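Each field is set out as follows.
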Amino acid sequence: METVAVILAAGSGSRTGLSTPKQFLLLGGKTVLEHSVQTFHNHPGIDQVVIVTATEFIGKVQGIVKANNWTKVTAVLPGGKERFDSSLAAVRHFSSKPDMVMLFHDAARPLVSERIITDTLKAMETYNAVDVAIPTVDTIVQCDAQGTHMESIQNRNLLWRMQTPQGFRQKTIQAAYSIALQDPHFTATDDCGTVLRYLPEEKVGIVRGSERNIKLTYADDISLLEFLLSNGSFY
């Protein structure tokens, strides 16, 4: 099966409180983006890599691609305002390849492992949509809309925390978004959620993620990522 890794790097990273978008922050001498792309580029099961970024950063990303001699990177695509806009840019880019396996990965998860990628590709032999996730260890409560009081406690044995990559057949994710875009109330924070909501007959497989596969969201996460990077090999 033909495979492509789609690295989503169009975010502004406003929640970090830093002036530099998080995908361009340095981590162990390389940018966060470089760590994320390199793992997929090195994986023998990945045929090509596409990076989706904000229009104003296309030149910068192209320079990073050239500096690293990433021969598997076949395109740097402009993303959109919302995360799903960036996913759609990649889906449409490969519209002529409906059976292609697409792995969507947040650039802000620089410590994704080869094992996770391998397991996701293996699961794609069974499912048309696959999510990487880990079981929650905390008690999860549902609060009121203002977050002022608890309303219920969820059964944590049934709750998992979603990560990336998320894998899809191109035709599956394209079909889900085709329906979703007709919904005036459509909102999405991830691609598996779009499939789950708009293609309910399509089972979404689960691949075990890792506590190390954390997402850089806040400035304090940088020190944790640096510690994890110095205490394990991820390539």
About this structure: The two ends are 23 Å apart (CA to CA). The mean pLDDT is 93. The longest strand covers residues 160-169.
